[in-house]
Backbone:
C-alpha cells in the first residue's frame, strides 16, 4: 500500500518536474509545477506529516504558483517564446553548473542521511501531534528563525514596492 | 475546552485499523456514495431554492412548471445542457480549457468530506456513531488537519476559475478571471486570519474536534470569539464564493459572463454546479466553525429537536445551514454590487487588519486567562489590547492619508 | 494514511462523474461548429484586437501580499492550536512577529501599493448648477434625434395631451 502510494506520488513529482522544464508554454509549465507540488504533498501525507502537506498545498500551490501565473499573465509572455534568442548569454552554462551542484548536494544528503532517521518515528500514529510539535519547537528553540522570517517579509515587500513603483518624471 | 479530548478526537475510528475487511469498505463506499448523491441533490435544490426565494422577494412567481412548485426545474435545466452544442473556441488553449472545469468542480465535491454532518457531540461525547457494529463518524474523513483541507481545496478552486478565463483566449473571460483570482486570494487572507480566532478557542484543526468543543451555546465560537471573526468570516466567504454583492467576477454589464463566457453545454454546467455546491458546503463550514455544527440548541437543558433521536444532529446541521443559505439569497436580492476598488479596499484595508488585530487581542485574553486567576488581569489585558489596536488604527489611517496625498500630488501612481 | 482513503474515492467518483457527463454530452449534443461560433465572444462584433496580454501591476502586488499573509496565517495556526503549552513566551513571539508584519503592511499601504484605479473626486452638484446659465433648461439642452420630419406632430401631440390633462 505504502509502496503504491510512493510510486504514484513520485510519478506525479517527476512528470510535473519534466513538464516544468520541457513545456514551451509558461502557463503549462506553471501547472506542471502544481502537479509536482501535489506529489510532494502526497509524500508528506504518506510520511505522516499532515500539517506540512496542507501547508504545501495552501502556500505553494495556493499562493506562490498563483503569483507565478499572475506574473506570466502580467508580462504577457504566455505565447511560446523564441528560444533561439539568448537575452543573457551566461545563463545556460550557469544553470548547468548550479543544477549539477544541487544534484550533488541532494545525492550527498540522501547518501549521508540514510541511517539517521530513527526507526518507528511516532508520526503516523497521531497526525494531530504534527502541528503541536511544530508549535513547541517554533516557539521555543527556533524562535529567532521565526522572527527572522518577518524580517525576510519586509525585504520582500520593500522589493516589490520599489520594483513596481513607477516614478513620475520630476517627482522624487 | 479539554485539549486532550480534542487531540484524541482527530481520527475516524473506522479507518484507524489495519483490517480492511468488506464491512469497512462497504461503509466507506456507502458514505462516499451518500455524500455524492447528497451533494448533487442538495445543489439541485439549492438552485431551485435560490430562484424561488429571489422571485418571491421580487414579487415574481419563479420556476413553477417542472414538478411540484417547480422543484425539478434545475434537473430540467441540467438535462437540457447535455443536449447543447459544446463549443471549443479557436483561440482556446485546448488542454487547459478542458481541464479547468474539473479543477473547479472536483474540489467543490471534496469539500463535503470534512464537514461533520451529524452525530451526538453533547456533554463531551465524541460524536461517533455505530453502524452495523462499526464505530465511525457521520463525516467522510476526519483528518488531523481537517480545516486546513478546506483552505487547500478552496485554493485549488481558484485555479479552475483562473485557468478557465485564461484558456478561453478571449477578452472578457480573461478580465473576469484575473479579477476573480485577485478577489479570491485577497479574501482568502481574511478568511484564514479569522479562522485563527476559532482555532485559538478550539485548540485543534480537526473539524469534529472543533464541533466537540462547542458544547452549549455559550461555547459556540460565534459567542466565544466575540462575533467579529464570525462577521469577517461570513463576508470573506461571500466574496470567496463570488456571491452578490461581491460577484464582480461575472458582472454582466462589464464582463458579459465573466470567466465562463466561452463555456457552453455541460462544461458550463460543471462550473455552475461547482458554484452552487460551494455555497452549500461553505455555509456548512461556517456552521461547523461558528455555530457548533450538529450541536443542538437547548431550551431549559432539553434538545429542541430531541424527538429526532439519533438524527437530531443531522437535522441541526441542515437547519443551521439553511439559515445561511437563506441569508446568501437574501444578500443577492438586496445588496448592490461593489465597484472593484471598493471591493479591494474593503478586503485589504478593513477586513484583513481587523481580523489580525482581533486575533491578537483574543490571544492576549486567552493567554491572560490561562496564566492568572480572576477577572482583573483579563480586563487589564482587554484594555491594553484595545489601546494597542487604537494606536495601530491611527498608524494605518496615517498610511492611508499619506498614500492618498501622494496620489493626489502625482496623479495616478499605478 | 488510510484516513484519506474516502477522500481519494470521492475524488475518483467526482472526476468520473465529470468525465461521464462529457461523454454523454458528446453523444447527445449536436456538433456543427462554424467559424462564427468559435470566434472569441465579442457581443456580435467581429473581434478586432487580441485579448489584453498585460495587466496592471496592482494584481502582482496583491498576489505578493497574499503570500505574506499566507505565511503569517500558517505561523499563527500552530500558536493558536498549541497556545496552552507555548504560553506567554509563544504569545510574545507571535506579537513581535505580527507587529513587524503589520508595520511592513503599513509601509506597503503608505507607498500606495493597494490603490486601485483612478482617484475618485466627487463634484459638488450645487457648484455645477451655479456654472450653468439659468436660461438653459432640459428642453433647450437635450437634443432630440430621430424626429426629422415629424417634429411638429410630436410637439403638437405633446402639447395637446398636456392641455387635455
Residues:
Amino acid at each position: 500500500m505504502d509502496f503504491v502510494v510512493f510510486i504514484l506520488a513520485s510519478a506525479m513529482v517527476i512528470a510535473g518536474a519534466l513538464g516544468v522544464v520541457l513545456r514551451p508554454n509558461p502557463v503549462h509549465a506553471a501547472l506542471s509545477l502544481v502537479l509536482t507540488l501535489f506529489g510532494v504533498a502526497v509524500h508528506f501525507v504518506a510520511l505522516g506529516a499532515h500539517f506540512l502537506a496542507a501547508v504545501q498545498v495552501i502556500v505553494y500551490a495556493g499562493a506562490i504558483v498563483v503569483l507565478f501565473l499572475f506574473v506570466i499573465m502580467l508580462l504577457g509572455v504566455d505565447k511560446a517564446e523564441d528560444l533561439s534568442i539568448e537575452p543573457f548569454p551566461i545563463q545556460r552554462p550557469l544553470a548547468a553548473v548550479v543544477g549539477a551542484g544541487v544534484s550533488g548536494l541532494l545525492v550527498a544528503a540522501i547518501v549521508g542521511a540514510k541511517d539517521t532517521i530513527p526507526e518507528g518515528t511516532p508520526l503516523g500514529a497521531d497526525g494531530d501531534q504534527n502541528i503541536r510539535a511544530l508549535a513547541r519547537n517554533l516557539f521555543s528553540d527556533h524562535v529567532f528563525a521565526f522572527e527572522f522570517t518577518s524580517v525576510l517579509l519586509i525585504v520582500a515587500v520593500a522589493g516589490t514596492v520599489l520594483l513596481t513603483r513607477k516614478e513620475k518624471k520630476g517627482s522624487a | 475546552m479539554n485539549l486532550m479530548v480534542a487531540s484524541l478526537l482527530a481520527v475516524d475510528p473506522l479507518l484507524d485499523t489495519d483490517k480492511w475487511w468488506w464491512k469497512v469498505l462497504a461503509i466507506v463506499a456507502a458514505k462516499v456514495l451518500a455524500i455524492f448523491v447528497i451533494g448533487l441533490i442538495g445543489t439541485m435544490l439549492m438552485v431551485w431554492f435560490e430562484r424561488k426565494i429571489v422571485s418571491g422577494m421580487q414579487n415574481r412567481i419563479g420556476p413553477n412548471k417542472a414538478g411540484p412548485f417547480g422543484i425539478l426545474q434545475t434537473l430540467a435545466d441540467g438535462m437540457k445542457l447535455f443536449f447543447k452544442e459544446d463549443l471549443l473556441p479557436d483561440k482556446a488553449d485546448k488542454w487547459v480549457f478542458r481541464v479547468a472545469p474539473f479543477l473547479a468542480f472536483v474540489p467543490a465535491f471534496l469539500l463535503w468530506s470534512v464537514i461533520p454532518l451529524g452525530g451526538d457531540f453533547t456533554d463531551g461525547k465524541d460524536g461517533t456513531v455505530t453502524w452495523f457494529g462499526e464505530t465511525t463518524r457521520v463525516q467522510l474523513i476526519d483528518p488531523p488537519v481537517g480545516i486546513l483541507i478546506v483552505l487547500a481545496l478552496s485554493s485549488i478552486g481558484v485555479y479552475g476559475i483562473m485557468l478557465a478565463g485564461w484558456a478561453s483566449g478571449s477578452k472578457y473571460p480573461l478580465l473576469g478571471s484575473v479579477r476573480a483570482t485577485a478577489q479570491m486570494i485577497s479574501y482568502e487572507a481574511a478568511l484564514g486570519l479569522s479562522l485563527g480566532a476559532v482555532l485559538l478557542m478550539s485548540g485543534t484543526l480537526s473539524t469534529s474536534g472543533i464541533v466537540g468543543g462547542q458544547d452549549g451555546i455559550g461555547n459556540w465560537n460565534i459567542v466565544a470569539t466575540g462575533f467579529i471573526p464570525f462577521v469577517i468570516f461570513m463576508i470573506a466567504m461571500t466574496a470567496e464564493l463570488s456571491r452578490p454583492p461581491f460577484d464582480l467576477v461575472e458582472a454582466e454589464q462589464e464582463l458579459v459572463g465573466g470567466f465562463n463566457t466561452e463555456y457552453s453545454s455541460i462544461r458550463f454546467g460543471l462550473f455552475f454546479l461547482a458554484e452552487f455546491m460551494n455555497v452549500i458546503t461553505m455555509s456548512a463550514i461556517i456552521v461547523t466553525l461558528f455555530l457548533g455544527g450538529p450541536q443542538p440548541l437547548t431550551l431549559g437543558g432539553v434538545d429542541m429537536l430531541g424527538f429526532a433521536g439519533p438524527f437530531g444532529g443531522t437535522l441541526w446541521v441542515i437547519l443551521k445551514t439553511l439559515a445561511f443559505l437563506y441569508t446568501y439569497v437574501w444578500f443577492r436580492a438586496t445588496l448592490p454590487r461593489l465597484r472593484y476598488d471598493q471591493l479591494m479596499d474593503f478586503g485589504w484595508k478593513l477586513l484583513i487588519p481587523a481580523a489580525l488585530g482581533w486575533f491578537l487581542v483574543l490571544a492576549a485574553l486567552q493567554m491572560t486567562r490561562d496564566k492568572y486567576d480572576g477577572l482583573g488581569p483579563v480586563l487589564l489585558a482587554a484594555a491594553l489590547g484595545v489601546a494597542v489596536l487604537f494606536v495601530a488604527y491611527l498608524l494605518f489611517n496615517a498610511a492611508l492619508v499619506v498614500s492618498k496625498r501622494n496620489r493626489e500630488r502625482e496623479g495616478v501612481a499605478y | 494514511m488510510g484516513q484519506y482513503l474516502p477522500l481519494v474515492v470521492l475524488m475518483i467518483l467526482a472526476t468520473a462523474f465529470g468525465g461521464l457527463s462529457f461523454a454523454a454530452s458528446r453523444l447527445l449534443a449536436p456538433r456543427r461548429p462554424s467559424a462564427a461560433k468559435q470566434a472569441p465572444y465579442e457581443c456580435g462584433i467581429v473581434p478586432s484586437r487580441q485579448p489584453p496580454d498585460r495587466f496592471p501591476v496592482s494584481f502582482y502586488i496583491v498576489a505578493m501580499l497574499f503570500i505574506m499573509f499566507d505565511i503569517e496565517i500558517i505561523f499563527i495556526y500552530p500558536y493558536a492550536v498549541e497556545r496552552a503549552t507555548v504560553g506567554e513566551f509563544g504569545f510574545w513571539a507571535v506579537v513581535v512577529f505580527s507587529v513587524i508584519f503589520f508595520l511592513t503592511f503599513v509601509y506597503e499601504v503608505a507607498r500606495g501599493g493597494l490603490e486601485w484605479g483612478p482617484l475618485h473626486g466627487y463634484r459638488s452638484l450645487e457648484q455645477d448648477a451655479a456654472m450653468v446659465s439659468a436660461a438653459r433648461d432640459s428642453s433647450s439642452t437635450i437634443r432630440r434625434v430621430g424626429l426629422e420630419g415629424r417634429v411638429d406632430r410630436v410637439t403638437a401631440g405633446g402639447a395637446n395631451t398636456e392641455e387635455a390633462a
Observations:
- The longest strand of chain B covers residues 128-131.
- Strands of chain B lie at 128-131, 134-137, 298-299, 302-303.
- The radius of gyration of chain B is 23 Å.
